[in-house]
From TrEMBL:
Protein name: YggT family protein
Lineage: Bacteria, Pseudomonadati, Pseudomonadota, Gammaproteobacteria, Alteromonadales
GO cellular component: membrane
Tagged with keyword Transferase: no
Keywords: Membrane, Transmembrane, Transmembrane helix
Membrane spanning stretches: 6-25, 62-80, 148-173
Length: 175
């Protein structure tokens, strides 16, 4: 029973954390605000981010209010899992683990966005709002790699290289 509850709590928190991190990433890459995916993300996060923006100003293109909210959600996950597993509640481990959970979720989100974009590229049949959004979200990561490793024989290895780098980083942080 405890494992099932832990799984459910972690999954629900992770899903919302990914939506908040997607908002941060969309702001950084200047994704199309009017895309249906963007509209969903903004509407799902606006109640809290709107309040936080009144307190926490943006730092250039970085949506610091959304980033702080994401870290708070990561800390909530750390506290909830600690509580559900019967561990004591200490603020420093919760903060550190929360930041690591947030970073791990960001890397995981980017990994899955790359995977979905690669799969969709095989079946692309013209313009699709979801595919356009995935292109906007991934191109800032892929373009620098393409400058170093150009397509070889028509095969673009940049997605594979970035996926390996993301997985390496996830293993480094160990969450």
């Amino acid at each position: 029973m405890n494992n099932a509850l832990t799984f459910l709590v972690a999954t629900l928190i992770d899903l919302y954390l990914i939506v908040v991190l997607l908002r941060v990433w969309m702001q950084l890459v200047k994704a199309d605000y009017f895309n249906p995916v963007s509209q969903f993300v903004v509407k799902a996060t606006q109640p809290v981010v709107g309040v936080l923006r009144k307190i926490i100003p943006a730092a250039g293109r970085l949506d610091t209010a959304s980033l702080v909210f994401a870290i708070l959600i990561g800390m909530l996950k750390a506290a909830a899992l600690s509580s559900l597993n019967g561990y004591g509640f200490a603020i420093v481990p919760v903060v550190i683990t929360g930041v690591l959970f947030t970073l791990s979720s960001l890397l995981s989100m980017l990994f899955w966005i790359l995977i979905i974009r690669a799969i969709l590229s095989w079946f692309s049949q013209g313009y699709n709002p979801m595919e356009a959004m995935l292109h906007q979200l991934t191109e800032p990561m892929l373009a620098p790699v393409r400058r170093i490793v150009p397509p070889i024989g028509g095969l673009d290895l940049s997605v594979l290289i970035v996926i390996i780098a993301l997985q390496f980083l996830r293993l480094l942080i160990g969450v």
